Structures are given as structure tokens and as C-alpha cells.
Amino acid sequence: MYAQMVKSEGGDAEATPEELAFQARIDRDEKIEPKEWMPEGYRKTLIRQIGQHAHSEIVGQLPEGNWITRAPTLERKAILLAKVQDEAGHGLYLYSAAETLGVSRDELLEKLHSGEMKYSSIFNYPTLTWADMGAVGWLVDGAAIMNQVPLQRTSYGPYSRAMIRICKEESFHQRQGYHIMMKMARGTPEQKEMAQDALNRFWFPSLMMFGPSDKDSVHSEKSMAWKIKINTNDELRQRFVNETVPQAEFLGLTVPDPELAWNEEKQGYDFSEPDWAEFFDVIKGNGPCNRERLATRKDAWDEGAWFRDGLTAHAEKSAKRRAAARHAAE
Amino acid sequence: MPSLPDMNTPNVEELAARAAKGQSHDPHLENVELKPAFFDWLCRMGDSTLILGHRVSEWCGKAPALEEDIALANTALDLIGHTQMWLGLAAEVEDAGRDADRLAYLRDAMKFRNLLIVELPKGDMAQTVMRQFLFDAWHHAMLTRLLSSTSPRVAEIAAKALKEVTYHLERSSDLVIRLGDGTEESNRRMRHALDILWPYTGEMFMTDSVDEAVAAEGIAPRADELRTEWVETVREVLDEATLDLPKAKADAQKGGKSGRHTEHLGFLLAEMQFLQRAYPGAEW
């Protein structure tokens, strides 16, 4: 998940014999491994996509971290901590996968901090009540899973293996989110109000997580040929709506879309498009929390410089001491 | 690195496995006279892990490196787990219809029994790391002693917690050494952190009537019995970290164990308890 509008690097020039052979391997569903030849465009597109996904995981800690100190019971606090810890772990797998393509974690972080690389637009929305912890797990992780399950079959080996691990944990996240929603939706009138309000605020931003409509999505074709992207944005969005609407009904909550209706013919729901103007505006940096999220990450990095430098200096000193001791012993 | 005691004593795993069930018969739970002291002592354990867990969790998403984000969340998670066990047992001992959550979320500051050192603001990573180390060294010594508690329930919880705290102490010792013996700046910050925290360390070893009552029953050691081991661990690590033991009084700040806290705890509780206070009786 968490990859929106990843620009694909496929050139229009006629394919070389190497490129043709590479494409044939992908078509045979072979996995591409780090040291094997790959087109530069494939490598660059993957770095962008995996990097954006990794950034989303670490920025994604913040909206939920916002409620850890206010979690309403010890158990909820423990579950939320475990979930946010998982997200940091996902970030780590993904940065490691990106490193196999020849880009360091520090380089990727610099690009995040400078605004050159993006993270998923969803994390620029605030988490205002405890019900948002439910909505984020249920809808945001739900949308993420929808995207990530097919990516387990992606052509790049390290990315595919990272996705397999991540998907296992994400499905636990989604269940715990839904469980929070269930408690709230069946709780006191105030809790129910919070639950409905959370759904109202997160519904359309969750639909935006799949990226713009296929007709406006210019980067898909090459990525799909390379099996970096498996399904189109609209396919995944439809699948998400089909799965989520009955879950909302089970909770007794109303999806905030008056156009929502079952379409017997396509065996799926018709629904309203999200406000794409809002989406592009958030991507540009004008969402409710863009500045805060990025500033928090950047401050954490800058204020932590002395810490990282200290550890590095100690490692260097220790190495020198070991070398000196070896020298003395010889 | 401190040399850690052998964890492979045969009964630790077994004890730890029983902690989750919480069903071992414990004669101390029937001792009516002991009840107030036993309850207080359990709250001291559980409140200290709860409040430290809270402070550590404040780093979520803001640590200086991704590995630290993961380690800090993991530490906080362990501490919240210990809290559930200690306060759960405290509620059983009290037998007044409260549970661990009610103890955590519906007591005011004066009823909290945590050590003052854990409620101080998280500060920079130097203060967070140094506090964790000073606490872990105490925590590890305490839990090790509790393995042979005459209370089976206490021994079981200690066994379960000790597995995690052994790792906490390894990690915090390691970081103190690396940052103390790192750059000039990291050394300066670690010295500063130690100076801030040192006056709060003495409280860990002050023995009062509560400690004496549980010690008399063989449930826990007297607080002052842990001092020698703690000083040894701390001295060894600080020495390797090229940091000096502070000369300031170690027991200048105290009171948490009997409910007299710093100004910081009230704000922490206001945040932590917000939902339970704003929506009384709701289930989450």
C-alpha cells in the first residue's frame, strides 16, 4: 500500500535484447533478485515505490502515536503500542528492501525531509478521538491490505518477501481496529457518535489511498508490465468498497455517501468519487497535518543527530582499540 | 556491560509460565493484617512500571533512529505488561471490587506509589536512556530477589518480567556506555542527564514500614538490601562510559513511594486518564 502516484520510469525507446529477456522473466513469474541485471527504470521506479511505502510506515506512527498516552485501558494501550511498533518494523524491512537497490536509508530520509519524496496522503489527516484508532485500523489498514496482498506476488524478490511478512501483521491491525469500532458503535451514545464521526472523516480519504482514477493515472502501464503494480487503482478501490460497506452495516454505522447503492449487474457497489481536488491539494502539502507530520519527523531526525554521532564515534573508537590490542599482541 | 546473573535456573521458565494464569494459591492473600502493606507494595511496583512505560511511549515516532523507535515501543510495551500483572495482583489483594484498569485510571496522584524518578519528563534521549539504565539496574536486582519470594504469585510475575528486564538492562547499559564514551557532545549530555537524575535514585533504597512489613513475610527484600548490587552495576557501567559517579546527595528527592509526587505526575495522569474520566463507566 501507501504508494500513490508513483512515477514510472519506463522509456519509450525500443527495447534492447536485455530488456526483452528481463520482461520475459517477469512474464514467466520469476522473481528478480538484487544482484541481477534490471533496467534502470525498473530500479528507479521500485526505489520510489518502496521508499514511499517505507516513509508512510514511519510517518504513519504519528497519528496513532498521538493516542498511545491516552489509550483508555491498559490492554488497549498495549495493543496500540504493539501496532505502532509493528509499523516501525515494517519501515525497517522496506528501507532494507530499498537498500538492495543501491539507495541508503539516510538518502531516502533526506528526500523525505526535503519534500522530494512523499508518503501516503492519509497520514495528513488528524486523529481527533479514540474512535479514530478504530477507523485507522479498520479503514486505513484495510485499504493498505487491499493494496499489499497482491504485492506479495510482485516481481522484485526482497519487496515481495517484505510484503508477505507485512501482510500478516496488517491483518491483525485491521481486526483490532474493527474491534475498537465495534466497542464504540455498541457503546454509549457519545461513543457511537465518535464512531460515526470517525467513519465520516476517514471514508473518503481512505478511498483516496488507492490513488487517482485509472483514467487519470498516467504511471500505471509500465509498472503493471513489470509487476510492480498488480491491479489498477479503480479495481482495488471497488474491491475495498465492496468489502467495507457490509462491515459498516454490521456496526450500525452509515457510510457518508448518499450515492452508495448495490449494483446487481456489476455485483458491486456504486459509490461517489472522492474529491480529487482535495487529494491533489493534500499531496501538494495543504492537508490538515502535512506541516506538522513532516516537521515532527524532521525534528526527530535533527535533534537525534548527536545521538547517532555518539554511537558512530563509539563504534570507531572501539574498532581502533581492538586493532591496537591486536597489534600489541602480535 | 554488567555481568548479569545466570537466568537459566530451572524454575524461572516454569514460574513465568504460571504468571499468565494467576491461579497459584498464595497464603499471603488471606493475611488480613498484611493487606494494606502488601497492596501498597504491589502498587509501588505496578505504578513505577506504568508511569515509566508512559514516559517511554511518549517517544513514539520521534526517536533518533528507526531502531530506537522499535526498541522504545518494545520497552514501553513490556512495562505496560508488567503493570497489568502487578496492579492485577494488587486489586486481588485489596479485594474491593477494583481491577488493574480502575487502579491505573481512577486514582489521583496522591494515591500513586511510583518512584519519583519515573515521572520526570522524558527530556532528551540522554535523560531517557540514563533514567532507563538507573531504573533497570534497580528493577533487575529487585526482580532477581523476588524469584525467591515466599509469595508464589509475586515470584511468578517476577520471573516473567525478569526475562524482559534482563534485556532492558543490557540495552540501556550498552547505550550509556556508547553515548558516554562517544563524542564530546554525547558525553556532555549524558553527564548532564546523570546530574539531573541522581538526586532521585536514593528513593529506590529507602526502607519504610511498608517495605518492612512485606520483608518480614519474606515477600520482598528490604529496599536498602538492593543498594550494594545497584551501586556495583552502576559504577561498572559508568566507569566504562567514562562518566563519574556524581557527588551530590542521592536521596535529596523522595516521597513517591508514599504518594507525595512532583508537579509532573498530575499532568501525566490528566492525559493518561482523560477518557476514563470524561466518559465514566464506558467500555472501550
Characterize the structure shown.
- Chain B: InterPro entries: Aromatic_CoA_ox/epox, Ferritin-like, Ferritin-like_SF, PaaA_PaaC, PaaC.
- The complex is a heterodimer of chains A (330) and B (284).
- Chain A is mostly helical and 330 residues long.
- Chain A folds into 2 domains: 17-275, Ferritin, core subunit, four-helix bundle (Ferritin, Up-down Bundle); 288-329.
- Chain A is 66% helix and 2% strand.
- Chain A is built from 13 helices and 2 strands, in the order ααααααααααββααα.
- Chain A has helices spanning 17-27, 40-59, 61-68, 74-99, 105-113, 131-151, 157-185, 189-208, 220-225, 233-251, 276-286, 290-303, 305-329; strands at 261-263, 268-270.
- In chain A, α6 runs antiparallel to α10 and α7 runs antiparallel to α8.
- With 284 residues, chain B is mainly alpha-helical.
- Chain B has one domain (32-278): Ferritin, CATH 1.20.1260.
- In chain B, α3 packs antiparallel against α7 (152-180).
- Chain B is globular.
- The interface between A and B is large, with 53 and 51 residues.
User: How much is the average pLDDT of chain A?
Assistant: 94
CATH architecture classification name of the largest domain in chain A = Up-down Bundle
CATH class of chain B: Mainly Alpha
Name the CATH superfamily classification of chain B: Ferritin, core subunit, four-helix bundle
CATH superfamily of the largest domain in chain A: Ferritin, core subunit, four-helix bundle
Oligomeric state of this protein = heterodimer
Distance N terminus to C terminus of chain B?
43 Å
Brief account:
The complex is a heterodimer of chains A (330) and B (284). Chain A has 330 residues and is mostly helical.
List key phrases describing it.
heterodimer, A: 330 residues, mainly alpha, Ferritin, 2 domains, two-stranded antiparallel sheet, 13 helices, 2% strand, globular, B: 284 residues, 12 helices, 0% strand
